[in-house]
C-alpha cells in the first residue's frame, strides 16, 4: 500500500501499486467503490498485465482518508488525485476511469494535462443526472443521509457495491453524489487533445450524443454481456478492448 498527503490537514490518498513497464496506468473507481476490487481481475489478464499500474482510492473512499471538511466536488477530487499522482512520480499516464471516476478523470486531464496522456472512460457520467423517482444518495439532505440514508442505501444496493460502499465516509459519499448529479463534462471531453475512448454496455444502445463525440475524436466501444460494471461483468472483453485502445503498449 502506497500513500501521499493531499490536503493541508494531513489527509492522505492511498493506492495499491503493481510494478511494471511504462507507460504507467492509473485506474480510478466510481461512486462508493474502490479501485482494486473493481479493476484488479481485469488488469491481471495478459492483455493488460505488465505495466506499472496504480489502483487509486479517491479521497473519502476505499482505503483513503475521509476528511469531513473536504467539499468532494468533481474538481476537488481531480486536484487531490493530481497531488497523489505527482507524489507517485506519475507523468503522462494512461488513465482508465469508471463511472464517477470518469467524470473526475476528465477534470484531471483538463486541469493537469501533464498527468494524462490517454483516457479510457468506462460508462462514465458526462451529463447532469435527472432526479430519480426513487430515493438515491443525492435525494437525501446530508443530515438525513448521515442519520438514516446510509443504512437505507446499503440495504437497497447489491452486495458488490455495498461491500465497498460501507468503506466510504458518509459525508464523502453524499457530497460526491450530489456534485455528480450536477457534473457536465461532455464539452471538456470533446476538447481534450489526447486519445480518448468511451466503453459502454452494448445492451444500453447508442451513447447519447454519439455522433458529436465521434466527430471530436472519442472512440466509442460497445461491450456485450455487461452492465454498468463492465470490467466485472465481462472481464475478458474489457481487458481486450482497453488494451487495443491504447496507442502505446
- CATH class value: Alpha Beta
Annotated CATH architecture? 3-Layer(aba) Sandwich
Largest sheet: 8 strands, mixed
**Global structural class:** alpha/beta
Q: What is the H-and-E element order?
A: EEEHEHEHEHHHHEHEHH
CATH-assigned homologous superfamily: Alpha/Beta hydrolase fold, catalytic domain
The low-confidence runs, each spanning 5 or more residues with pLDDT under 50, are none
Tell me what the structure shows.
With 249 residues, this protein is α/β, with parallel strands linked by helices. The chain has a single domain, classed as Rossmann fold (3-Layer(aba) Sandwich). Helices cover 39% and strands 20% of the residues. The protein is built from ten helices and eight strands. The protein has an eight-stranded mixed beta sheet, sandwiched between helices. The protein is globular. It starts with a strand and ends with a helix. InterPro entries: AB_hydrolase_1, AB_hydrolase_fold, AB_hydrolase_sf.
Could you give a short description of this structure?
InterPro entries: AB_hydrolase_1, AB_hydrolase_fold, AB_hydrolase_sf. With 249 residues, this protein is of the alpha/beta class.
Keywords:
249 residues, Rossmann fold, eight-stranded mixed β-sheet, 8 strands, Pimeloyl-ACP methyl ester carboxylesterase
Amino acid at each position: 500500500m502506497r500513500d501521499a498527503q493531499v490536503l493541508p490537514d494531513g489527509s492522505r490518498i492511498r493506492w495499491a501499486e503493481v510494478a511494471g513497464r511504462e507507460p504507467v496506468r492509473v485506474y480510478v473507481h466510481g461512486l462508493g467503490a474502490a479501485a482494486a476490487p473493481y479493476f484488479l481481475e481485469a488488469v491481471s489478464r495478459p492483455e493488460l498485465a505488465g505495466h506499472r499500474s496504480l489502483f487509486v482510492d479517491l479521497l473519502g473512499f476505499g482505503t483513503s482518508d475521509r476528511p469531513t471538511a473536504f467539499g468532494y466536488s468533481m474538481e476537488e477530487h481531480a486536484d487531490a488525485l493530481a497531488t497523489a499522482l505527482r507524489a507517485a512520480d506519475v507523468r503522462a499516464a494512461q488513465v482508465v476511469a469508471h463511472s464517477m471516476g470518469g467524470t473526475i478523470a476528465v477534470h484531471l486531464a483538463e486541469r493537469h494535462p501533464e498527468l494524462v496522456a490517454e483516457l479510457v472512460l468506462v460508462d462514465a457520467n458526462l451529463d447532469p443526472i435527472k432526479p430519480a423517482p426513487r430515493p438515491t444518495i443525492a435525494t437525501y439532505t446530508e443530515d438525513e443521509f448521515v442519520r438514516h440514508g446510509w443504512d437505507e442505501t446499503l440495504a437497497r444496493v447489491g452486495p458488490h457495491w455495498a461491500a465497498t460502499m460501507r468503506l466510504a465516509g458518509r459525508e464523502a459519499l453524499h457530497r460526491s453524489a450530489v456534485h455528480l448529479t450536477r457534473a457536465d463534462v461532455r464539452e471538456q471531453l470533446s476538447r481534450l487533445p489526447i486519445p480518448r475512448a468511451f466503453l459502454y454496455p452494448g445492451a444500453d444502445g447508442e451513447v447519447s450524443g454519439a455522433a458529436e463525440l465521434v466527430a471530436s475524436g472519442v472512440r466509442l466501444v460497445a461491450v456485450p454481456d455487461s452492465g454498468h460494471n463492465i470490467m466485472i461483468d465481462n472481464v475478458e472483453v474489457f481487458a481486450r478492448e482497453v488494451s487495443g485502445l491504447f496507442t502505446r503498449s
